[in-house]
Amino acid sequence: MIMPLTRNQASSTNEVASLQERSDEQSWLSAEAVRRQMEAEERHCQAEEWHLKAMKMAKQREEELRQQITIMKAATEKVRGLVQEVDIHALWRQPFSEEINRTPIPTNFRELVVDPFDGTQDPHSHLQAFQTQMYNSGGSDALNCKLFLDTLRGVAMQWLSILLAWTIQSFKDLAVLFVSQFIANKAKRLEVADLFDIRQAKGENLKSYLARFNNVMVRVNDSEQKFFVKAFQKGLQAG
């Protein structure tokens, strides 16, 4: 026969159970603290490892940059040495005669206002514009040759730089070679019949029509010009 627990016995049992629960909770907290500490230590170790790797990579990159800078400096010094061995003036003197080379450019010479020629424009138009400027400035034949250089760009400058030594004795020589080289860009000469295709547009004033007509007329290859007036009149709007 099981005897019922007395009040004191029940109280002792509850206290034991409570102590057991607190002990279990304390054990869990201790274990959790240990686990978290281990995780923190692991993260710290990983961070240290990544830091060391990053430092190593940074040092390697720094060393690579030093080597590249050293190589670049050596290459630069080599190029400087080669440049010093080249007679720059000889490169530009080659196409011209000694007389042209010796011709100085006056310090007070009037600056030319000519659109640069890059090898794609009409060579005749460029020569005409250049010679007009030189005529107004009073330049000599030799000076024409030297200043013509300043109007060339790109392909045109490259062309001049590869001409044989002493090829150019006068500006006429330079002009002939220049036109021959870029003759494909010469503007097409028009015929009288092209003038009869010009019409004054509806609403276009007479001044605008005359300007368009003149732009075409100067390109027509006809010394008599006897049909120019007829073509102009035919193109006028009626009324």
From TrEMBL:
Q: Which species is this record about?
A: Mucuna pruriens (Velvet bean)
Task: Kindly give the Pfam families that the UniProt entry links to this protein.
Answer: Retrotrans_gag
Q: Which regions are flagged for Polar residues bias? A: 1-17
Instruction: Tell me which residues make up the Retrotransposon gag domain.
Output: 147-237
UniProt xrefs under PANTHER family: AMINOTRANSFERASE-LIKE PLANT MOBILE DOMAIN-CONTAINING PROTEIN, CCHC-TYPE DOMAIN-CONTAINING PROTEIN
| Superkingdom | Eukaryota
Region Disordered, as annotated, extends over 1-24
Q: Would you tell me the protein name for this molecule?
A: Retrotransposon gag domain-containing protein
Q: Which InterPro entries match?
A: Retrotrans_gag_dom (IPR005162)
